[in-house]
Amino acid sequence: MTDALYQQDAYLGHCPARVIEHDLEGLVLDRTVFYPVGGGQPGDVGWLEWKDGERLQITGTRRRDDGEILHLADTDQAWPTPGSDVEARLDWELRYRHMRMHTCMHLLGMVIPHGVTGGNIGAQRSRLDFDMEETVDKEDATARLNELIQADLPVSSQWITEEELDRQPELVRTLSVSPPRGAGRIRLLNIGDKDLQPCGGTHVRHTGEIIGALVVKTEKKGKRNRRVHISLTE
After folding, report:
1. Distances from the Cα of 100 to the Cα of 10, 19, 47, 169, 211, angstroms
2. What pLDDT was estimated at residue 178?
């Protein structure tokens, strides 16, 4: 399987890699910094570069049915052949935006401590759906969200086994999607020892990197469903 370098260091913007194979949609590398779409976070985009300055634009990243990470590309470009050595380069500005936004979504879950029934992460705007009947006060939620950002809490990850997670079901707050299983271990995100839950996405190292956020809209989507939209201030 592809060595997913982003799991160890989300700040890696590029890495040397070797093309293992490709199909009609994209390429498989032996190692990558590209995050595949999942958990509400978009797949990374960027480029592969190789000898003589050749460059292939990567339009997205996802997991194939067999679990391999597939780097998507249009077929009207020249592709490196299997066995070729390449440099995998992210669109770092977009990735870092997603890292800040994804971490901010976890903070929103700390501010609104209810089960999460859905969500979506975007570069400009993101949302979470909560299993709750109460109305969310935008101004109060914004203030508490920014308190957590300005506290500059450390953000780190750790791993536990699937059996350990089974013994701590309270760690899972997403009601509609369960953490991926099959690898034998689950990655947890720890924010300042105040919030610990499974997450395989990419995140900043300190909440202060988010800079600031706004709760821009709240919606009632059902009797027990409140949708909250946020954006970053810069």
Report:
1. 11, 30, 22, 27, 9
2. 61
